[in-house]
Design goal:
By secondary structure, the protein is mostly helical. The chain has four helices and no strands. Helix content is 85%, strand content 0%. The radius of gyration is 16 Å and the shape is elongated. It starts with a helix and ends with a helix.
Length: 131
């Protein structure tokens, strides 16, 4: 059951990153994007990522803290995801809504971070499911 919850949490993280990416690409106004991001996307993303990390910690405890290569890589991936999200959200926080093309400047940076996150989670999930 724990592995199943962990797997579904990984799928939920992938879905949330994809939704974030879709909303970023389709965003036209910076003020609306900031509002949607701060009210809906960030809390959901943090909750889903927290669920993934929590189920991973429970799985580690069930294995009596046995550190394998997969577990170490997953821990590193969790830290990397948190750092990347913090960088992306910090850049969005300091983005001025008064500047005319601020969203167009932010989009490539944020899109790159989200794509890297999606790729990392997908690769780790595929490794978890098929190896």
């Amino acid at each position: 059951m724990g592995l199943s919850l962990h797997s579904w949490s990984a799928v939920a993280v992938l879905v949330m990153i994809f939704i974030n990416l879709y909303i970023l690409i389709s965003a036209k106004e910076l003020a609306k994007y900031k509002k949607v991001n701060s009210l809906y996307l960030v809390p959901l993303q943090i909750t889903v990522l927290g669920t993934l990390l929590f189920t991973g910690i429970v799985m580690m405890a069930a294995k009596h803290l046995h550190f394998s290569i997969e577990n170490i890589v997953m821990i590193i991936l969790g830290v990397v995801l948190i750092v990347l999200e913090a960088k992306r959200l910090k850049a969005l926080k300091y983005l001025s809504t008064k500047k005319e093309h601020a969203l167009e400047v932010y989009k490539p940076y944020s899109r790159t971070i989200l794509q890297v996150e999606f790729g990392l989670v997908l690769l780790m999930s595929l490794w978890m499911w098929f190896v």
